[in-house]
Amino acid sequence: MKGLSLITLSAVFCWVSADIRCHSCYKVPVLGCVDRQSCRLEPNQQCLTTNVYLGKMWVFSNLRCGTPEEPCREAFNQTSRKLGLTYNTTCCTKDNCNSPAPRPAPGLTLVLFTSLAGLGLWLLH
Fold first, then answer.
1. From its phi and psi, is residue 16 left (phi > 0), alpha (psi between -120 and 50) or beta?
2. Which residues form the UPAR/Ly6 domain (predicted)?
3. Are 59 and 53 in contact (CB under 8 A)?
4. Distance between CA 87 and CA 51 in Å, rounded?
5. Predicted confidence (pLDDT) at residue 118 exceeds the cutoff of 60
6. pLDDT tens per residue across span 69-117
């Protein structure tokens, strides 16, 4: 019984002291993550993802580790009136939990598919 308790306690200690890493990059359409890296999360900080939109169209994402100087603060539909951009920031604390990018809006996918189909029909004509 002592051996089982010691193994369990060791496993919990290793899990708690394990490094938590976050994705770190700027993700842009077509190119994907530019300057992809990994950062180690500091104690009491969170991984963050900021997605930037122009209307409903995704423009880019910023993924990084929060720091004491710039901690993660969740925000939804924060708007820059000068540029007309909307920012959504999410925070998380699990290993590699900040996703590389949002999915494109379904309407944008439909417009792209329809445009490509129209171009294909025009070329065949």
1. alpha
2. 19-100
3. yes
4. 6
5. yes
6. 999 999 999 998 888 999 999 999 999 999 774 545 545 555 555 666 6
Does an H or E element contain 16, and which?
Answer: helix 2-17
**pLDDT tens string 2-44:** 554 544 444 443 344 468 999 999 999 988 888 889 999 999 9
CB neighbour burial string for 80-117, b if at least 16 within 10 angstroms, e if fewer: eeeeeebebbbbbeeeebbbebeeeeeeeeeeeeeeee
3-state SS assignment for residue 22: strand
**Mean per-residue pLDDT over the chain, rounded:** 79
Domains of the chain plus CATH, in order, are: 18-120 (2.10.60.10)
**Secondary element (H or E) of residue 78:** strand 75-80
- Which residues contact residue 74 at a Cβ distance below 8 angstroms, ignoring those fewer than 6 apart? 89, 90, 91
Q: How many residues does the structure list for the chain? A: 125
Q: Beta partners for 83?
A: none
